[in-house]
Every structure is written in structure tokens, then in C-alpha cells.
Amino acid sequence: MPEDAVGAVGDRLAPVLRQVRAGNGFEEALEQILQVVRLGLVPGGERLPAERELAERLGISRVTLREVLKVLQDQGLVESRRGRYGGTFVLPRPTDTGEEELRRRTAGVDIEDVLRFREVLEVGAAGLCATHGPSDGRAERLREALAGTQEAPPAEYRRLDTLFHLTLAELSGSRTLTAQYAAVRATINDLLDCIPLLVRNLEHSQRQHAALVEAVLEGDADAAREVMREHCAGTAALLRGFLA
Q1: pLDDT band at 6, cuts 50/70/90?
Q2: What is the pLDDT of residues 86-101, one digit of tens each?
Q3: Tell me, what's the pLDDT at 143?
């Protein structure tokens, strides 16, 4: 993988991967890499970062990391390939969204609670970003994430939409908020996978994304919070309509 591609993958994973605590190294590392896979930060068919890089990011030994990857392989989420272009590759997610799959994904999920928590985190992150104002480098990251959603084909839209929202959460400056958002977004994505992509909704979402970035870059915290609140409400309405 070219050096610039490796760097791009690292940027994608930055909102999720962090140093784990010594007492629960295996469990916390497994949780974080599961989030990487569930959030689509490394798409199906693409390779996870090298073991050395992952272990350094997580602060664990390569032995522990291999135990984590073995669990993911046993669950059918990744596969190991040998050779010059080998490594650990994420497997494509099943596309079955029938009634049985719908029941499985929504079992035990309090949809209203998830949606409310998501709104609190997203609105708060938008306000923080606008209040503090991202630096030039961070502003460019936000613009790039927005451009990714604007240029995404339908099959890639939700993954790149996730990356946009994770970038905003990370730029809020709160690691705790970012970690909590990554967790709730994984649940949201499981629910979104159960409903169809609607072109009109995607167009509306894109307009909201653009307005949100504009408000953040102009330092208008009130406008950023209001746009995000409306954006979350739109997603919530769709999920309630299809799943509630």
C-alpha cells in the first residue's frame, strides 16, 4: 500500500483507535477494532493497518493483537492473507436485510434512547467545533470529509457519511465525546442498514452537511447546533418510520 494511502487509513481510524488501559487491554482493543469494522472505516475488501501500527496505536503487544484478530476472523469479519500483499482484510458485510435480520439487529435496542443520545453528542460536537474554531489543518480535514460524502456513490455513502460525522466529533476536542459517539454511531449504522437509501433524503442530508460546515468554519455555534439538531431529527424520523 502506498505511503499516502497508509496515512489516509490512519486518519480515518484516528477518531476510534486510542491507547487502551492495561487491565482490559484485550477487551478494549477488541471493542475498538470491532468499531472500525462496524463503522466501515476500513471498507470490505480493504486491509487493516499493519500489526505493528495497530499494536502501537492501541498500546498492546502484537501477541495480544493477534488474539484480537483471531476472534474477528472466527466471527467472519476479517481474513488473513499471506504473501507480499498479505495482511488482515475486512470481509464485505452481508447485505441481507430481511425480516429475520431486522429482528436480530433491533433486538434489545431502545431506538428512542439511542437517537436521543446521538442527538446530544452530535449537537454538542457541532457547537464545540464552531465555538473553538478549527485550525487551518483541521478545517481542511472537515472540508475533505464533506467532499467525500458529496462525491460518494450510493454504495459508499453511509461509510463516508459516518467518517464525516466522526471527523466532526474528533474536531470537537473531546476524546470522551468522540469515543461515545463512535459507539453510538455503530448502533445507528446497524439500524440504518435495515432501511433503504432514499435519494431525496441523501440530497437533503448533503445540503445540511454543507450548511453545518459553513457554520462551523464561520464560528457560528448557534447555527451549527441548530443545523445538526435538524439533521439528527431527519435521520430519527426515517428510523422511526421504518423500524419503530
Answers
A1: very low
A2: 899 999 876 555 556 6
A3: 95
Q: Look up residue 149 and give its three cell numbers.
A: 460524502
Residue type, 205: S
Cα–Cα dist 120/129, whole Å: 14
- Dist. CA 87–CA 80, nearest whole Å: 6
pTM: 0.74
Burial 101-113 (b: 16+ CB within 10 A, else e): ebeebbeeeebee
Write out the E strands in the chain.
Answer: 78-81, 87-90
User: How far is residue 136's CA from residue 141's CA, in Å, rounded to a whole number?
Assistant: 9
Residue-level pLDDT at 3: 46
Q: Which three cell numbers stand for residue 17?
A: 483507535
Q: Could you tell me if 84 and 1 are in contact, meaning their C-beta atoms sit under 8 angstroms apart?
A: no
| Close Cβ partners of 61 (under 8 Å, ≥ 6 residues apart) | 55
Contact 95, 142 (CB under 8 A): no
Contact 189, 158 (CB under 8 A): yes
Q: What is d(CA 155, CA 199) in angstroms, rounded to the nearest whole number?
A: 12
Number of H helices, E strands in the chain: 11, 2
